[in-house]
TrEMBL record:
Protein name: PF03932 family protein CutC
Pfam families (alphabetical): CutC
Transmembrane segments: none
Domain of life assignment: Bacteria
Cell compartments where the protein resides: Cytoplasm
Family: Belongs to the CutC family.
Xref: SUPFAM superfamilies: CutC-like
């Protein structure tokens, strides 16, 4: 099985860096500092115009958790439809009930829209908030999810390798598992070897300084020291190194 490195991108520029580093697939977002929200249509159009990347676009209308109101979900569904119509290959989303179980009604409706628009569905790290990962995985397989992004219910994937390995053993023949959170050149190969999965998800993050982030009396900073005046970006060099590390 060929090993796959998916790069988490927050902009068109990020996607170009991922592409230059040799990536073949990205997850496209906005607002990565909030965990990733729905990207702009313009970023998707530019990526599809200037690269041949496979693009999984995020459908997430707000930060915080994944129990969505009717209005939230209506926005998500329309975003998914528009993104697919403009060239997205798949949609990453996650819908949970207040009880931290899979919201099967919303998930089924989202998948219906995705498949009508010839895309595929990826259940993102909302999965890491469920109480019963085995039952949740069975439900996602039954619903028709193609892939699940998970850190094994831990903050970092390297700490969740035991669960990821067990999920792969039990369900890997029926659904793809993608390990994400804290994946880097130093641990990606180890995660693959310990779990038996062949796909990892990484931000390959670097920083660029923008002196206009902080004014005399105002600040638009979202990062802590020493990155108060910085914004995050994908590093083409880190992407290249990560790809080489798992070959």
């Amino acid at each position: 099985m060929d090993k796959i490195v998916e790069i988490c991108c927050g902009s068109y520029e990020d996607a170009l860096m991922a592409y230059q580093g040799g990536a073949k697939r990205i997850e496209l977002n906005s607002a990565l500092f909030l965990g990733g929200l729905t990207p702009t249509i313009s970023s998707l159009l530019l990526i599809k115009k200037h690269t041949d990347l496979e693009v999984v676009a995020m459908a997430r209308p707000r930060g915080g958790g994944f129990c969505y109101s009717t209005a939230d979900f209506e926005s998500m569904v329309l975003d998914a439809e528009l993104l697919l119509q403009q060239g997205a290959d798949g949609i990453a989303f996650g819908c949970l009930e207040k009880s931290c179980r899979i919201d099967k009604v919303q998930t089924k409706e989202m998948l219906s829209v995705i498949k009508q628009n010839k895309g595929y569905g990826v259940f993102h790290r909302a999965f890491d908030c469920v109480d019963d990962p085995y039952g949740a995985m069975e439900e996602l397989i039954e619903l028709g999810i193609k892939r699940v992004l998970t850190s094994g219910l831990r903050a970092k994937a390297i700490d969740g390798v035991d669960l990821i390995a067990d999920l792969q053993k039990k369900f890997g023949a029926h659904i793809e598992l993608l390990a994400g959170s804290g994946v880097n050149v130093g641990n990606a190969r180890l995660i693959m070897e310990k779990t038996g999965i062949y796909q990892v998800h990484s931000s390959c993050k670097s920083w660029i300084t923008d002196e206009t982030t902080i004014g005399k009396y105002v600040s638009y900073s979202y990062a802590g020291s020493p990155h108060e005046k910085d914004y995050e970006t994908v590093s083409a060099e880190l992407v290249k190194n990560l790809l080489e590390s798992v070959r």
